[in-house]
């Protein structure tokens, strides 16, 4: 299995680029944000529990997302590999992911960090608010809170992978195809 992790702040383009990478390299795209939004839309018990948390731009509890991801990995035993998007977002999530992958005799090959300037993140999310129905994109204060939560709780995950030599950075500024080409060049040596 070839597993990648796409990383970066909200608005860095993780979702857009993961879909393209999944199709290019025959990987299964796992986005905890998408999974949680599906739960909210379907008004499940879990969806009701997480809706407010997501609207405020806070993180949902680790155990919720860890279980969702473990289930998806379990139900795809023949996968060529996975691309994890929006997960892990805390060091505890990273540890849990490692354990789950180790049980399957596999691991994360590389973490791909999309580097984007702060003003550009806010600009992209406000632009997305005009075309999507994501309530967390509509309010600049919520956007700033998501970026703050990212800096405080999610950035420490970088060190977790960097110490294992798995951390790669990619310039995430520019247009979608340009960034996709940079990602492909960056991982070409490993896939
Ligand atoms: P973005 O990266 O643009 O903020 P996502 O779609 O990845 O958007 O996530 C949207 C929201 O879903 C987050 O703000 C958070 O509330 C919740 N969420 C998604 N993934 C996780 C996770 N791994 N751990 C905790 N909360 C998560």
Could you describe the 3D structure shown?
This protein has 9 helices and 5 strands. With 191 residues, the protein is an alpha/beta fold. The chain has one domain (2-184): Rossmann fold (3-Layer(aba) Sandwich), CATH 3.40.50.300. It has a 5-stranded parallel beta sheet with strand order 2-3-1-4-5, with helices on both faces. The termini are close together. The radius of gyration is 16 Å and the shape is globular. The chain has helices at 14-25, 32-41, 45-56, 62-74, 91-103, 118-131, 140-154, 156-162, 176-187; strands at 3-7, 28-31, 82-85, 108-115, 167-171. Helices cover 57% and strands 14% of the residues. Helix 1 crosses helix 9, helix 2 (32-41) packs across helix 3 and helix 4 runs parallel beside helix 5 (91-103).
Summarize the structure.
The chain contains 9 helices and 5 strands, in the order E-H-E-H-H-H-E-H-E-H-H-H-E-H.
CATH class reads: Alpha Beta
Number of domains: 1
Rg, nearest Å = 16 Å
The DSSP helix count reads: 9
Q: Which cofactor or ligand species appear?
A: adenosine-5'-diphosphate
Architecture blueprint of SSEs:
Elements: E1 3-7, H1 14-25, E2 28-31, H2 32-41, H3 45-56, H4 62-74, E3 82-85, H5 91-103, E4 108-115, H6 118-131, H7 140-154, H8 156-162, E5 167-171, H9 176-187
Parallel strand pairs: 1-3, 1-4, 2-3, 4-5
Bound molecules: adenosine-5'-diphosphate (ADP).
């Amino acid at each position: 299995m070839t597993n990648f992790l796409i990383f970066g702040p909200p608005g860095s383009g993780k979702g857009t680029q993961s879909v393209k990478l999944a199709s290019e390299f025959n990987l299964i795209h796992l986005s905890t944000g998408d999974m949680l939004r599906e739960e909210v839309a379907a008004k499940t018990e879990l969806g009701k529990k997480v809706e407010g948390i997501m609207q405020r731009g806070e993180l949902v509890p680790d155990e919720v997302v860890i279980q969702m991801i473990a289930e998806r990995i379990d139900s795809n035993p023949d996968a060529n590999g996975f691309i994890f998007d929006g997960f892990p977002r805390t060091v505890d999530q990273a540890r849990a992911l490692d354990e789950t992958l180790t049980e399957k005799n596999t691991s994360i090959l590389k973490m791909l960090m999309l580097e984007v300037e702060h003003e550009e993140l806010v600009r992209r999310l406000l632009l997305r608010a005009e075309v999507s129905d994501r309530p967390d994109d509509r309010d600049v204060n919520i956007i700033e809170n998501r970026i703050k939560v990212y800096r405080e709780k999610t950035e420490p995950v970088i060190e977790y992978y960097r110490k294992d030599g798995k951390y790669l950075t990619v310039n995430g500024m520019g247009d979608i195809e340009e960034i996709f080409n940079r990602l492909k060049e960056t991982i070409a040596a490993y896939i």
